[in-house]
Amino acid sequence: MGRSPCCEKGHRNKGAWTKDEDEKLISYIQAHGEGCWRSLPKAAGLLRCGKSCRLRWINYLRPDIKRGNFTEEEDELIIKLHSLLGNKWSLIASKLAGRTDNEIKNYWNTHIKRKLLNRGIDPQNHRPLNLNCVRDYTNTSASSMTLVSSNKQNIEESDENSSTGRIDLDDRERTMRCPDLNLDLSIGLPSSSLPIQEVSGSSLCLCCNLEVGSSSGDKCCNVCGQVKSCTIKLRS
DNA sequence: AAAATATTCAACCGCCGGTCC
DNA sequence: TGGACCGGCGGTTGAATATTT
């Protein structure tokens, strides 16, 4: 009947970590490595739950974390990856060395969303906010597109209504927007509907392009090998 | 200078999938 | 086979800080 809590009952510290707690966690992991998060707090002398320790380490204390502002290149990469993957922050983070999923998620919500809105692009589905803009959009680079006042209602509505992070263009609209771009990004379907991207004149599947691998370990695009059923392991 | 408002981001929460027994 | 456990994920919260009035 129900699951047990993630850590034993009793007094637990919550909220911001103190310097002393940080030092305890760092020194323990340096000595013993990342291991069983559940038993780590007790072993390290911390009054925290294992999950909290894991989060603190992964998002803040890990030595390979990159500090500082995101670069323009990182911005654009995040936007591209989000357009392909949706809110799969951990998958996106795995493509940006030194960045954590939490950091990217926060950065998306505070900076990139606004940036895309200013470009007249819905940050959830990467569609133009106003279909009246479609013609202009196809003739203009996205980065140079500015938000017109009539879009304001669309911004608010799309922000509220589109919470899935999925790409849900219908074919007709997609063709109108991007006539030369194949955005068939279905994931986990048989080879007939594999996610294929055109890269430098040759096709490269999404899995291979992102180096996330296929379920079978086989290559699955016509750049890297035979065509086989290819699934990216993503939560639905 | 103070109060109100907006923004940022570390941390928490609850759920899910994989593994073990 | 099913339940318990655990790690990991994405969404959300709220305290701290910055900006505006």
From TrEMBL:
> Which branch of life, at top level?
Eukaryota
Which InterPro entries does the record match to this protein? Homeodomain-like_sf, Myb_dom, Myb_TF_plants, SANT/Myb
The terms under GO molecular function for this entry are: transcription cis-regulatory region binding
Task: Please list the residue ranges annotated as the Myb-like domain.
Answer: 9-61, 62-112
Q: Name the Pfam families for this protein.
A: Myb_DNA-binding
Task: List the SUPFAM superfamilies.
Answer: Homeodomain-like
Tell me the compartments it is located in: Nucleus
Indicate whether Nucleus appears among the record's keywords.
yes
Q: Which SMART domains match?
A: SANT (SM00717)
Q: Can you name a GO cellular component term?
A: nucleus
Q: What is its main location?
A: nucleus
Positions of the UniProt region annotated as Disordered: 149-169
Q: Where is the HTH myb-type domain?
A: 9-61, 62-116
Q: Which UniProt keywords apply?
A: DNA-binding, Nucleus, Repeat, Repressor, Transcription, Transcription regulation
Q: Does this entry carry the keyword Cell cycle?
A: no
Q: What PANTHER family does this protein map onto? A: F14D16.11-RELATED
State the protein's name: MYB transcription factor
Organism the protein comes from: Allium cepa (Onion)
Q: Which gene holds the coding sequence for this protein? A: MYB5
